[in-house]
């Protein structure tokens, strides 16, 4: 690991400002005029839940409590409304402070990328990483929409940075800080919840290989911190579901089953339009599954679909239990089909979006970032710089999503981490053995 002096406040602030200003321009000037991007306001009902929290209705979609979303992002929306107000007559305009805050998140993400790259590599690489993070399309995509993408991007980048510190020094302080940000990440999107365990395994493996003492206090502190943050919400879900559900948010099995539809060749080979077609087909697939259990997936009027399943805890629990049974049976009885889905979705995670043309464009930027990151890792290894935690974060999310449901929107919060490594692939240099020793970097 490099022994670079602390970055100047001026440089760090400039990197933040670049990311923040470009996010403002993208969000308030460019995005709404860019017809090439399909724009759906509050597609996943985060804002709707935030509005109910703000109005005192609790964590709800309108009919009692819900478990369908993790709590952090709707709570942030409600807090912003509490500070700046909410006008139902001008609902969309009321979200402008939310978008402004997400621009701040974008700037902070660039700052963390700069700090992380400087800590690992050099000032030159760090500046390049910060600037690339500010302009990279995937890093900007979800800043101006009601979606948890910008929040996830900030939290996942923080997870990588603090995991790096914890990996280097697995003490109680770093364990608590890493557990804190992983817990917050899990409250924004449940996927990070299990990340402490592979991270701890990597630390133990590294120490065993290097014949160092195996740390226990720091890893325990990390796990405990995650549980301290997440267990209260899990207990809430247990209570509102009458003991039927204990997770952070429901519908994981439903997403898992929809992944089989996603893994069809017409989608991953880009033979068919993804937007609309996949969602309709996946809905019909769920209709068939739930019909076996006597559960309606849609509501009908005069024989026509007028909406989804009535949003109530009772229906959420029924759907969750039924799809859990089907998902488990599918894995146990058809493991090769699951393996096929998993392998395909390792790749669809990076490129599949609304249309074949857009998927090719997104895939092009993904290839650039991944190729640059691979080269950056190789240069780091040759220079004795251990970037294992950053690689572990990217692989962890890629693998988890591939097992459940994976298309490109889920990979976008990981691009700041890829860019940190890719910047080293562009501007980094391989050091000789004497240079490694002189610069005090840690060999792997």
Helix content: 55-70%
Average pLDDT taken over every residue: 92
Care to count the β-strands? 2
Radius of gyration: 22 Å
Shape: globular
Estimated share of beta-strand residues: under 5%
Secondary-structure blueprint:
Elements: H1 9-30, H2 46-54, H3 72-84, H4 96-120, H5 123-135, H6 137-140, H7 149-168, H8 172-188, H9 196-209, H10 217-240, H11 252-262, H12 265-268, H13 277-291, E1 298-301, E2 304-308, H14 313-333, H15 335-351, H16 356-382, H17 388-404, H18 415-427, H19 433-439
Antiparallel strand pairs: 1-2
Helix pairs in contact: 1-4, 1-5, 2-3, 4-5, 4-7, 4-18, 5-18, 7-8, 7-17, 8-10, 11-13, 11-14, 14-15, 15-17, 16-18
Detailed description of the structure:
The protein is mostly helical. The chain has a domain at 149-188 and 191-245. It contains 19 helices and 2 strands. It has a two-stranded antiparallel ribbon. It is globular. Mean pLDDT is 92; it is low at 438-444.
């Amino acid at each position: 690991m490099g022994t670079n002096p602390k970055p100047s406040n001026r440089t760090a602030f400039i990197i933040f400002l670049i990311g923040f200003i470009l996010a403002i321009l993208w969000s308030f000037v460019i995005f709404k005029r860019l017809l090439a991007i399909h724009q759906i306001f509050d597609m996943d009902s985060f804002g709707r839940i935030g509005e109910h929290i703000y109005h005192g209705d609790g964590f709800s979609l309108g009919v009692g409590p819900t478990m369908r979303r993790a709590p952090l992002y709707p709570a942030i929306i409600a807090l912003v409304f509490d500070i700046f107000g909410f006008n139902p007559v001008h609902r969309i305009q009321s979200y402008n402070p939310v978008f402004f805050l997400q621009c701040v998140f974008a700037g902070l993400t660039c700052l963390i990328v700069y700090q992380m790259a400087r800590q690992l590599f050099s000032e030159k690489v760090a500046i390049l990483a910060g600037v690339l993070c500010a302009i990279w399309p995937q890093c900007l995509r979800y800043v101006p929409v009601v979606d948890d993408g910008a929040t996830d991007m900030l939290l996942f980048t923080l997870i990588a940075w603090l995991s790096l510190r914890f990996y280097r020094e697995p003490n109680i302080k770093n364990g608590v800080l890493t557990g804190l940000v992983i817990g917050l990440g899990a409250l924004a999107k449940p996927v990070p919840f299990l990340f402490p365990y592979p991270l701890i395994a990597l630390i133990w493996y590294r120490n065993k290989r290097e014949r160092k003492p195996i740390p226990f206090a720091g890893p325990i502190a990390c796990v405990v911190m995650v549980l301290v943050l997440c267990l209260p919400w899990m207990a809430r879900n247990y209570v509102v579901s009458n003991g039927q559900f204990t997770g952070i948010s429901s519908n994981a099995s439903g997403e898992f089953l929809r992944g089989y539809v996603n893994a069809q060749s017409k989608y991953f080979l880009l033979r068919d339009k993804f937007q609309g077609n996949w969602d309709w087909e996946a809905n019909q697939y769920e209709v068939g599954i739930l019909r076996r259990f006597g559960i309606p997936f849609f509501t009908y009027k005069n024989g026509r679909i007028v909406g989804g399943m009535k949003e109530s805890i009772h229906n959420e629990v029924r759907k969750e239990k039924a799809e859990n049974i089907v998902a488990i049976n599918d894995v146990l009885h058809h493991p090769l089909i699951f393996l096929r889905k998993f392998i395909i979705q390792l790749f669809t995670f990076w490129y599949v979006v609304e249309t074949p043309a857009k998927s090719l464009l997104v895939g092009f930027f993904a290839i650039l970032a991944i190729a640059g990151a691979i080269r950056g890792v190789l240069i780091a290894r040759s220079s004795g710089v251990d970037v294992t935690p950053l690689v572990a974060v990217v692989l962890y999310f890629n693998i988890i999503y591939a097992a459940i449901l994976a298309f490109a929107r889920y990979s976008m919060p990981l691009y700041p981490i890829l860019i940190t490594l890719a910047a080293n692939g562009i501007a980094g240099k391989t050091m000789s053995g004497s240079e490694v020793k002189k610069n005090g970097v840690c060999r792997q």
